[in-house]
Amino acid sequence: MPLSLLKYGLSRDYPVTGDIPATPDLKRSYDVVIVGGGGHGLACAHYLAKYHGVTDVAVLEKGYLAGGNTARNTTTIRSNYITPEGIAFYKEGVKLYGEMSGELDFNVMFSQRGQLTLAHTEATLRSFHLRAEMGRHMGTRLEVVDQKGVEALCPRLNMDYGGPLEVLGGLWHADGGTARHDAVAWGYAREASRRGVEIHQRTTVEAIDVEKGRVTGVVTDRGRVAAGAVMIACGGANYEVAKLAGVELPIRCYPLQAMVTQPLKPWLDTLVSSVSLHTYLVQSSRGELVIGGGSDPYMSYSTRSTLEMKEHLAEGAVHLFPFLKGVRVLRQWAGTTDMTPDYSPIMGASPVDGLWLDCGWGTWGFKATPVAGKRMAETIAAGKVPDILAPFALDRFERFAVLNEMGATAASH
Questions:
Q1: Which of 241, 234, 218, 190 lies closest to 32, judged by CA?
Q2: In whole angstroms, what is the distance from residue 180 CA to residue 335 CA?
Q3: CB 339 within 8 Å of CB 295
Q4: CA 8, CA 302: separation in Å to the nearest integer?
Q5: What is the mean pLDDT of each run of 10 residues along the chain (413 residues)?
Q6: 3-class secondary structure, 216
């Protein structure tokens, strides 16, 4: 342990100041208002201020900083998607995560240790070959491994030889990893605040004013503010907030649950996902096993966890690693996923001038935090959607130009 760190820990007078200023009074107007104080909203504010000189920005959050889906996910980062458009987008996200600690001067604990997705059927294995070819074509590190390759990557895994869930192979994504979700949010919030961005917690948007087809401001429970531009980036609340401006999004919301176990000595080096079991596991830096699965099969805005999902996740985890039987579960949580029909996000312009959308993230919003923030900041500053975001436009559903990413994950993460 460094001596300076020991002195800091034993000091009675901590030489620190608050990273985020206290919530100020709302001004009458801002150049940009961002609805949603999660990772995407804070990242956009940071990139607007640092790279585009747009500092007259207010981030409005009805709860506390990053208390929505940013705090209710399993922090998986990857780019092993299906469509060329999706792969290119998330590949940039992985790259930005690798640079994030330096960008923010804040340790976000990015750990790039790879993701192994298991195939229990020949059909799944064939689909993995197609995904690997597309991934390599787009420049990602993605390959299909056989049974020996799976055992080498994860030697403690139950291969279930001869059983109904025998592992036949896997999709190895060396670029996969994790990062500390609250560190990501606080890092972006701190840097944005230092450049003049205002972060207003406990501030609920009650209406969005539109005049002659253009957004003019927002009404909050603390008063009305005029705005030159408004961006909606509030996770499971995106549908309801967009309706305030008269925009109906093709989104339906489903709960997504996860849980963690008591800390264990480090033994799981990779992220492991099972297609057939709808279960995935990763070990955190604190030793806890983070276990997640698929979204609940019913629409709801609820963030309550259920015994049924806990039992399902425990069953899948114990099948993959039988020695986990008896390990205690510490906590369980749920988020709200805003799903689109093609399982791809909606980014860019809305039917209302000056109203920008960063919505429909479903189960993969966290991994897109830096690239979505960077590209949406570019969009707002220039008033024009960059090429990388063009495929994710809202009007793709009218043009039948959907991006089907439904099979891009073994479980919902």
A1: 218
A2: 17
A3: yes
A4: 42
A5: 70 69 91 98 98 98 93 94 96 98 95 96 95 96 98 98 97 96 96 96 97 98 98 96 98 96 96 95 95 92 93 97 97 95 97 98 95 98 97 97 84 55
A6: strand
Contact 27, 168 (CB under 8 A): no
Collapse the DSSP code of 190 into the 3-class scheme (helix H, G, I; strand E, B; otherwise coil) and give the result. helix
Amino acid at 34: I
Query: What HEC string does 348-394 produce?
Result: EECCCECEEEEECCCCCCHHHHHHHHHHHHHHHHHCCCCCCCHHHCC
DSSP character for 111? B
Residue with tokens 């760190």: 5
pLDDT, residue 17, reads: 62
Structure pTM? 0.93
Q: Domains in the chain, ordered, with CATH?
A: 25-75+181-251+342-399 (3.50.50.60), 110-176+253-339 (3.30.9.10)
Nearest to 247 by CA among 382, 346, 116: 346
- Of 241, 235, 249, which is closest to residue 208 (Cα–Cα)? 241
Question: d(Cα 129, Cα 103) in Å, to the nearest integer?
Answer: 36
337: helix, strand or coil? strand
- Alpha carbons 234 and 290: distance in angstroms, whole number: 24
What is the pLDDT at residue 406? 87
Which two three-digit tokens encode residue 217? 């401001």
**What residue type is assigned to position 406 of the chain?**
M
Q: Distances from the Cα of 185 to the Cαs of 202, 342, 412, in angstroms? A: 17, 27, 21
Bridge partners of 283, per DSSP, are: 289
How many CA atoms, within 13 angstroms, populate the side-chain half-sphere of residue 150? 24
Q: Please, where are the H alpha helices in 72-222?
A: 84-104, 122-137, 147-153, 181-194
How many helices (H) and strands (E) are present in the chain, helices listed first? 10, 18
Which of 107, 25, 83, 145 shows the shortest CA–CA distance to 345?
Answer: 83
Q: How far apart are CA 162 and CA 241, in angstroms?
A: 51
- C-alpha–C-alpha distance, residues 370 and 90, integer Å: 10
Enter the tokens of residue 111. Answer: 């750990």
pLDDT of res. 210: 98
pLDDT for the residue numbered 412: 52
> Distance between terminal CA atoms of the chain?
35
